[in-house]
Design goal:
Length: 362
């Protein structure tokens, strides 16, 4: 019996990928790996280098340095370059453009160059059944809705059994209600096919919904990588918090490992005396209490001291209400969200506390 258990190499691995345009680094030393059946999301604002990374993996853009491996085999470095069509990579982009003059069946069969007629037909039928579109097999793209076209595009991309699927904002052309369903369905099919998926998006909700792992990108670099829960709850910096949600910021100076604020003291272990810090927290972690004869709630260890604020504006957002307060201590605005309907009148005096365990100090 074999005494050694070897772990297979990742389905896709990129090492130290770099690309500059006109001397400006656009992809700046990016490395990551994706296993079969895993969805990794490159998430970041417009222009941070997501699409360029994807294009290098697809083979339509050359890197300045770095390597790309599929199943442990070198696909591309600065000397060797496997042509795009031999990389066994499927592509899905926002403007997925089915071929308008080809039938649905011929669109799906497009990448099956080497297969026999019978094999092609079998694979086309299998995939169209999988995306629940067999009834359109002899139809043409213009007879399909946007969502149906998207599902044909998925079937077309999957037909040659790619090892890796690269998706660049593939759902952004669809309207909201349709999008959730198609996203989930696409994800199920990709998982069943055991495809490694690299999805590019600038929408945190999409990344949280789809990804097993998020790689947060900024200015050509990956600033944080991990499971969505970890990236959301343990952000590396203020911008990483702000990328996922609205934020509030308190400024404070540290003395004796404590940051003094109108909401009481915050622990700042290891921060040198005299350092100015930002205490960052999300609106859902602000607690609101009514004013009782000019008093707020008593200080507690978990919520600190209450600070007095006056309601400026309250808006109903569907699942929650967003209330903006002008704070007494310096007139700055803090935002709080409250589940369901909570619409106090502008001018109402209230007391705010902040959940200590949900704050980030940078
Ligand atoms: N061929 C090119 N020549 C010059 N600059 C380029 C080229 N391709 C991309 N860029 C620049 O590189 C930067 C990153 O572009 P890229 O498309 O990778 O970003 P992105 O994160 O995908 O953004 P978006 O979500 O808007 O597509 C941008 O500033 C872009 O203008």
């Amino acid at each position: 019996m074999d005494r050694y258990v070897t772990t297979p190499p990742p389905r896709l691995e990129i090492r130290n990928l770099r690309r500059a345009f006109d001397g400006r680094p656009v992809v700046d030393d990016i490395s990551f790996a994706i296993q079969p059946g895993q969805v990794t999301c490159l998430l970041g604002p417009s222009g941070c280098g997501k699409s360029t990374t994807l294009r290098m993996i697809a083979g339509v853009e050359m890197q300045d340095s770095g390597e790309i491996y599929v199943d442990g085999q070198l696909v591309c470095d600065t000397v060797f370059r496997l042509p795009p069509e031999r990389r066994e990579i499927g592509l899905m982009f926002q403007d997925f453009a089915l071929f308008p003059h080809l039938s649905v069946a011929d669109n799906v069969a497009f990448g099956l160059k080497k297969a026999s007629k019978a094999e092609k037909r079998a694979r086309v039928e299998e995939l169209l059944a999988r995306v629940d579109l067999m009834r359109f097999i002899d139809g043409f793209p213009h007879q399909l809705s946007g969502g149906e076209q998207q599902r044909v595009a998925l079937a077309r991309a999957l037909a040659p059994r790619p090892k890796i699927m690269l998706m660049d904002e593939p759902f952004s052309g669809l309207d909201n209600r349709l999008r959730d369903g198609i996203r989930d369905e696409t994800l199920n099919i990709l998982k069943e096919e055991n495809t490694a998926v690299l999805l590019v998006t600038h929408e945190p909700e999409e990344a949280m919904r789809m990804a097993d792992e998020i790689a947060l990108m900024r200015d050509g670099r990956i600033v944080q990588q991990g499971a969505p829960y970890n990236v959301y709850t343990r952000p590396v910096d203020r911008a990483a918090v702000a990328f996922f949600s609205d934020t509030n910021v308190l400024k404070a100076r540290v003395q004796g490992a404590l940051a003094e604020t109108p909401f009481g003291q915050f622990l700042a272990p290891g921060v040198p005396d005299g350092t100015d810090v930002d205490i960052v927290f999300r609106p859902q972690h602000v607690r609101i209490d009514f004013d009782r004869n000019g008093q707020g709630p008593k200080p507690t260890a978990t919520d600190g001291t209450a600070a007095r604020g006056v309601v400026q504006r309250a808006r109903f957002m569907g699942n929650e209400s967003l209330v903006e307060f002008a704070m007494d201590y310096d007139g700055s605005v803090l935002r709080a969200t409250v589940p369901n309907v909570f619409l106090p009148k502008p001018g109402t005096v209230m007391w705010l506390t902040i959940r200590r365990d949900k704050c980030f100090i940078f």
